[in-house]
Amino acid sequence: MYVLIGGMGGIGSNLAKNLLKMGHTVAAVDTDPQACQYAREKIGVMAFEGSAVNTSVLLEAGVRKAGAVIAALQEDALNLALVTLSKHYGVPQIVVRMSDGDFAEPYRLAGATHIISTTELTLNRVINAIEYPQVDAMMHFEQGQIEVLKLSIPPNCSIVGRSVAAIAQDPRFPSGTLIIGYQANAHEDLKIPNGNTLLEDGSTILAVTKPELVRQLIDFMGLCQS
């Protein structure tokens, strides 16, 4: 896919690197000549010097052929303009970085398909680190109605050697929670488990649950550490 990124700050640069690794063709637009030079020489993407909300620059950068535009500019007002122009040029996927929550509705009205609140992400990560230090990572979906947790299985845990089906039937395991991913060790790929999958010492699971069940799930895992 041809992906056009507006803004080559820290977020834009890291996105470009990862998208390239995934096999996408990446172009970037930035007003800073040094950022454009870095993008070309160090990251290996096409970089166009100029404003990402200038129609001439966008057309030169190939916005008409873009499968996705990522608005990662420093100011929400500029990102809103980029979203509007991307919609005008028929870009099917428009992802925007939002700093101020007041822009959420304007972004939606302008045509953004995905709105990523950097402030909300940071706050959630800090709060989760304090509230749930046992969790390796946690992601929120559907406005916080669903949580996906990454949990490491501690040594000598009582669920080691048990199947996913057996764990699901344990009365201590929170009802409505599902184990949706399993990684035996850091050198193996994450896989989707079935009922017969046996959990090993030192492995990692991904579990999906409701926010009100997170503590119960952690307590269930905590029973294994006693």
The SS-based structural class is alpha/beta
Give the distance, in angstroms, between the N- and C-terminal Cα atoms.
Answer: 50 Å
Q: Please compute the radius of gyration using only Cα atoms.
A: 22 Å
Please state the oligomeric state of the protein chains shown: single chain
Per the principal axes of the C-alpha atoms, what is the gross shape? elongated
Q: Provide the residue-averaged pLDDT.
A: 88
The H-and-E topology, N to C, reads as EHEHEHEHEHEHEEHEEH
Task: Give your account of this protein's structure.
- The strands form 2 sheets. This protein has a 6-stranded parallel beta sheet with strand order 3-2-1-4-5-6, with helices on both faces. Strands 7-8-10-9 form a 4-stranded antiparallel beta sheet, with no helix packed on it.
- The radius of gyration is 22 Å and the shape is elongated.
- It is α/β, with parallel strands linked by helices.
- The model has no long low-confidence stretch (mean pLDDT 88).
- It contains 8 helices and 10 strands.
- The longest helix has 14 residues, at 118-131.
- Residues 1-116 form the RCK N-terminal domain.
- Keywords: Ion transport, Transport.
- Residues 136-223 form the RCK C-terminal domain.
- This is TrkA family potassium uptake protein.
